[in-house]
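Researcher:
Attend to token order:
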Amino acid sequence: MKVLGIDPGLRNMGWGVILVEGSRLRHVANGVIQTTEGDLAARLSQLYRGLCAVIAAHSPDAAAVEQTFVNKDAVGTLKLGQARGIALLAPAEAGLTVGEYAPNAVKKTVVGVGHAGKEQVQHMVKVQLPGVTFDSADAADALAIAICHARHLQGRALRVVERSA
């Protein structure tokens, strides 16, 4: 199963694709969709087209998106929420199920600590996906979101097997 992780952002939307084979995870690809300066509608369109291209190129089976945290800047939070809407829309339009995870849940799953720093998350992504390289923190975060979703799917599958036994 291929899982697409998406780290929403209006300027930089990180994405990462991993392959889940039983309990093993393998890196497929990662990157960032960058928008140019311009009005909000044009930037959202760039994000949507870019994410659709990633989905078409990698054919994931499922997707996961980080939930938006509310910060002190209400306008910034609203704009991030609109980018997050694109991150939910593109995979849904492609027929993918989309998981949503709070930032602390992603960190707890990947690092073991809900308040881990970016460096710790990046280190553990490299540990869990040997040989992976990423150009930005946004792509690393997207891979962490994909790992989180994969681990949650694996946990659900184990619970189903245990119940049927």
Summary: Residues 137-164 form the longest helix (28 residues).
